[in-house]
Design a protein that fits this description.
By secondary structure, this protein is an all-alpha fold. 67% of the residues lie in helices and 0% in strands. The longest helix is centred in the last third of the chain and has 46 residues.
Length: 138
Amino acid sequence: MSTSLIKVKGIGPTSAQKLAASGITTAEELAAASPEQLAAVPGFGPLRAVKIIEDARQLFSADEAVPDIEGSADEIVVKKLKKDKSQPKKTKAKEKAKVKKKAGSKKQIEKKSKKKKEDKSLQAKSKKRQLKKKAKKK
């Protein structure tokens, strides 16, 4: 007998679809999943994974064989952070290219702001001329 994922506290239709796409289609499979496996599903971080697995396990009696979660939520978060740090870092060349690109855009911004100031001063001068002409006509 298989139990619907939606019966698990914290799992709605959208989360159930995400889990099903990752191969977890029943509450029993969810209860047997590891926090790392569940954290790999989009929308499930390490802390939520532990909580959802615990909630899934509460649906079943103690007679059923569902493995315990290994490690606390904090340990899982630490593992996740260590894993993220092992990702390759950006090269210095890429960083320099970004800096150059930003510097170029700063120059463009300065040019635009300078042009705006010039345009405003020209508008102010033309307004003064128009006011003088009107004053002379009266």
